[in-house]
Amino acid sequence: MPVYFEPSAILFDLDGTLLDTEPLYTLATQKVLDPFGLTFTLEFKRTIVGRKALESAAMTVEHYDLALTPQAFLDQRAQYLNALFPKAAAIAGAEAFVTALAEQGIAFGIATSSSRALFELKRSTKPWLQAVAITVCGDEVAASKPDPEIFLKTAKKLGVEPEGCLVFEDALTGFLAAKAAGMPVIGIDSPYLRPEDRKHANEVVTDYLSLVDNSQPVFGITLATDFD
User: Fold this and answer.
1) How far is it, in rounded angstroms, from Cα 152 to Cα 172?
2) Domain 22-86, second-level architecture
3) Scanning 7, 40, 100, 127, which has the fewest C-beta atoms within 10 Å of its C-beta?
């Protein structure tokens, strides 16, 4: 039965959740694969979204049988990403929603699988993201999503119990990590989510536009509880 949930804190993923960076990853990865005559498929991308960079790189190298080490793959891809990331657009309504939470004093943080260096690059041109004080990056935890470590660490930095946190995510690995942390999760829809993936989120929304008005004066949302 759906229940009303008023979180003590909100945890955001970054890529595909606050920033529309996934198309940029797709473009840069395809650039690396072009000399090999290979195509970066949507089906394969769905298996690596939300993972740490080195882990997803290793999976990509193995899947496409590339004559590259995972680090070499990342180094080549970075040549394209470094120019693209500062230009990444926000997910619709994300800036307004985050700003509203800050104005109300609602605790929130970012838990991203990106490395610290890439995270800082992605938010380098966006004051609303630069203002987020509590952030945990993929190279600051031992285990990557779907392990819950990154969400638990972010909650601890916020001084909030895990069960009081609400997570916004865009990938199956993130949904599973949130569930393992004991946190309800709202999915941000994307082409990378399969129908079976959506079942692991309490709700799935297109963007934040429908939530901005609901964040006044205190954010709360009705969530399904009978999810897999």
Assistant:
1) 17
2) Orthogonal Bundle (1.10)
3) 127
